[in-house]
Amino acid sequence: MVLGLAISTFPNAFSATTGGNLWRGKQYSTKNIYYTSSFALKASQQKRKTQIEYNLLSSHNPSLNHDYKCIGGGFPHQEFKTKSIVKAIPEESFSCEPHASNPKNIFDVVKNFLVALYWFCYPYTVIGRTLSTISISLLAVNRISDISPLFFTGLLQVLIPHLFMDIYINGVNQLFDVEIDKINKPFLPLASGQLSFTTGVIITMSSLALSLGLGWITGSWPLIWSLILCCAFWTAYSINVPLLRWKGNPLLAAMCIFVTWAFIFPITFFLHMQTSVLARPVTFPKSLFLIMAFMGFYSIGIAMFKDISDMEGDNTFGIHSFSTKLGQKRVFWICVSFFEMAFGVALLFGLGSSFLWIKIITSIGYAALASILWNQAKSIDLKSKASIGSFYMLIWKPASFCL
Length: 403
Prior knowledge:
- It comes from Psophocarpus tetragonolobus.
- By secondary structure, this protein is mainly alpha-helical.
- The protein is 77% helix and 0% strand.
């Protein structure tokens, strides 16, 4: 800033002493001396005027005395800069206020933490499981009057504890996979350093306690067993202790996803609504078996597909997935085949309905979904993580809505 003020002052000095006159010869030297003397007189007057202004300012703000001496003292052409510097000092002092007291900075910190927490939770799995919970709960509805405040209360009893269980499952997986994620998923908050390891532990364990505690408060045994089984399977999947860390074995890893999505979720969610909320005897409708059959095939496809983009990190840390054993391309098309079989099973169930409108809707709907997925699969670039990731997000959508 001082350099800028000095530069802004120099042109006037040059125009008074030399500005286009030196090259004209000695005949103009007398005029130059006159100009220089005049300028010196004006500068002297300017200095006295500046000193008066400075004294007035410093009488109101004594802190300017020290600033003036530090910035202006001993600097060349001080008499031409003093006025500008004195006026600039209060602005500089204002900008040095502590940043921590700025509400905008506090807002940014909170916003960044919430964004990191959002990605820590694996949002696509939370959204998928939430939509599936709603779909399965609706299977217990026999008439319009069943959709009552009691029904929505029972739905929240499932959604809230399982939301915290989802955070626990995703959190414990990231805590034991930090080094692998630095290779496979460097954007995740623990791998990227957006969240510290300690913060991750606190969030994960707090979520587990809230999930089990809220589930116990409901008194619904189907819901309690759902939470206990999910916790047991996915803890065994992630933690690195003897006999566990099932994600290192492709069959055990696939079994965790298969059992959770094809059996635990459909059966326990339905029984919670049927017995604990609506107080009806245990019955299993055909639609529940359809969901279990559909998710049986579809969950196997998801279990195999999720590791396709993680081959580099899995090979480095000795994780034996289907992709590392069979290769990306072969596993990819095996997964697509399982997805198509799931749509085929759903279509056959729909055609077996005694209602014509159900036959038409299911035939058109599942045929359309199968066609979309097949066409998207043909355009996937298996060398691109972004392309694989985009397809992975696509396959979660039918799992969410068809459940």
